[in-house]
Amino acid sequence: MKHNLKNIKDEELFLLMAKGDKLSFLAFEELYNRYSSKIYTYIRKILNNSPASDDIFQETFIRFYEFSKKCKEMTNVIGFLIKTARNLCLNEKNSKNSSHLDISNFNFAYYDKSYEKKEINELINIGLDALPDKYREVLVLREFMDFSYQEIADILGISMPVVRIRIFRAKNKLREFLAPFLTENEKNKIGKIK
Predict the structure, then answer these.
(1) What is the dihedral of CA 95, 98, 100, 101, to 10 degrees?
(2) Full-model pTM
(3) Are 167 and 139 in contact (CB under 8 A)?
(4) Distance CA 141, CA 138 (A)
(5) What phi and psi, each to the nearest 5 degrees, are found at residue 145?
(6) Which domains does the chain have, with CATH numbers?
């Protein structure tokens, strides 16, 4: 008997996952399929494509699965996954005491781009790498993961005005960094970031 879990809400899937029966693994698999690419992208961008990204990605989902055995209810699956990934990323950065890692192989995962767009994206990635962590993180959450200001505030445990200020400053710093490399037309495209 095949189960279709695609139309079930996250909260209900978590309840199924927490029960530990036959549907438990299928519910976990559905939640993994829904959020794995977002979590992976977040980790790769925050850690600048560090080799540790894969381990942290796996550890995030292991902790999520283990948490389901302890807690029977969850109202925000993606929020839990991002917070877990964030804490693991912070631990990794603190253990390395390094804020600059090689991002030469870093690519946007979602779009097939022309050569010109690839060059612009490479510059944006270099610019992201140059941003202080507190600015890079809010910009990744907003622009690449499409979280609202309130969701970002909740995930990071800061106020919404602080989120707005950090995003504003991050965009300005990114534009400043990119200005010498871009034509006027490209600057206009970059200026249209949300």
Answers:
(1) -40
(2) 0.68
(3) yes
(4) 5
(5) -115, -5
(6) 9-98 (1.10.1740.10), 113-194 (1.10.10.10)
User: In the chain, what is the straight-line distance between the N-terminal and C-terminal CA atoms, in Å?
Assistant: 45
Query: 110: which 2 tokens?
Result: 């979602």
CA distance 193 to 82: 22
Contacts of 81 (CB under 8 A, 6+ apart): 35, 39, 60, 61, 64
Write down the number of H helices and E strands in the chain. Answer: 9, 0
Q: pLDDT (tens digit, 0 to 9) for every residue of the chain, 194 residues total?
A: 456 888 899 999 999 888 878 888 899 999 999 999 999 999 998 888 778 899 999 999 999 999 998 887 888 999 999 999 999 998 888 886 544 433 333 444 444 445 566 777 777 878 888 888 899 999 999 988 889 999 999 888 899 999 999 999 999 888 888 888 766 655 555 555 54
The candidate with the shortest Cα–Cα distance to 150, out of 90, 79, 86, is 79
